[in-house]
């Protein structure tokens, strides 16, 4: 019983820990939420998913805005994976810098990115911003979290991530924060 209580205490301690130690630029959803709520340090919190994904999955209004790192190319399909191909937003760094400037934030302000799972766009977008000289981090496990591997709900993203951490989110997109592409004339 004592071992069980120690294990449970350690697990709860890790679950509520504000930072995740798996790398030096990953942050837990709870840590990002706390920073945004306490408003003690300037931060730019960016959802880097394609806007259509946000439309179907949901979002949190805690983010400052949506600037996609990868954009879905609806004209090109990866036949092997059975999905649309994605390409890097060529204006990503410039749009992040413009968002910082628009909000009166210095270029060394912490920029935190969040994607669906944290791995395919969250960390790569933070790495890309760091290569461009910005102070970037990402939300570990992203908005939707990880898919469970076994059981009745295998394959569903029902563990960790922003959405599964009891943090505020909505199934509706915020038109004032969503990324808009110029209309083709």
Automatic annotation (TrEMBL):
Transmembrane segments: none annotated. Residues 1-21 form the signal peptide. It comes from Oligella ureolytica. The keyword Cell inner membrane does not apply. This is Sulfurtransferase. The lineage of its organism: Bacteria, Pseudomonadati, Pseudomonadota, Betaproteobacteria, Burkholderiales. It comes from the Bacteria. Pfam families: Rhodanese. Keywords: Signal. Residues 94-155 form the Rhodanese domain. Gene3D superfamilies: Rhodanese-like domain (3.40.250.10).
């Amino acid at each position: 019983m004592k071992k069980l209580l120690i294990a449970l205490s350690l697990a709860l301690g890790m679950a509520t820990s504000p930072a995740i130690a798996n790398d030096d630029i990953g942050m837990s959803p709870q840590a990002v939420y706390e920073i945004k709520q306490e408003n003690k340090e300037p931060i730019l919190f960016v959802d880097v998913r394609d806007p259509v994904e946000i439309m179907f999955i949901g979002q949190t209004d805690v983010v400052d805005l949506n600037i996609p790192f990868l954009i879905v190319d609806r004209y090109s399909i990866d036949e092997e994976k059975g999905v649309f191909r994605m390409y890097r937003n060529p204006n990503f760094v410039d749009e992040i810098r413009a968002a910082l400037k628009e909000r009166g934030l210095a270029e060394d302000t912490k920029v935190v990115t969040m994607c669906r799972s944290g791995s395919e766009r969250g960390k790569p977008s933070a790495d890309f911003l760091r290569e461009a000289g910005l102070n970037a981090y990402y939300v570990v496990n992203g908005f939707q979290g990880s898919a469970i591997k076994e059981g009745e709900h295998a394959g569903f993203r029902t563990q960790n991530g922003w959405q599964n951490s009891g943090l505020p989110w909505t199934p509706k997109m915020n038109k004032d924060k969503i990324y808009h592409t110029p209309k083709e004339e």
